[in-house]
Description:
Elements: E1 2-8, H1 16-25, E2 32-36, H2 55-65, E3 69-75, H3 83-93, E4 106-111, H4 119-131, E5 142-144, H5 147-150, H6 160-181
Parallel strand pairs: 1-2, 1-3, 3-4, 4-5
Amino acid sequence: MTKIGIVVGSLRKESFSKKIAKNVASLFPEGYETEFVEIGNLALYNEEYDGNSPEEYTIFRNTIKGVDAVLFVTPEYNRSVSGVLKNALDVGSRPYGESVWDGKPAAIISQSISNLSGFGANHHLRQSLTFLNMPVVQQPEVYLANSADLVDENGKINNEGTIQFLQTFVDSFVDLIKKYQA
């Protein structure tokens, strides 16, 4: 069983990122298991915690160590990722030389309630993942615009073309994961 950790860059209970992530989680084929990874409980990274980490850091790091790949689903905040997502990246990358992200295949979905579709967040996240040595799905890129209109009252994506596109994206992610498992 291949395990995919899903990291959502929004803490809001009814976040569009979370709803989109739940839809995408159902698109993985048999043999793939998804797990949502909690990041909202992580104290802001502080180097003084290296060697004496809060319990939440240890749980988070062990969870990421236990997955084979990571799907990031993020909103765009001020043309970048949310502070909570950046903090999770920092917590997982430390102490120096002990990054839990190293070599794990990754994929990114960004979304926005506007027409810009999270382009800035997607590319800022790609830059961080490059530094963290995470191979990332290059194509197709996923930028979802007008996300408030993309999901219905039950949180389901209401556009068949978008669902088909996301299936193509998941298939590409699965192919990338297989390359790194070989």
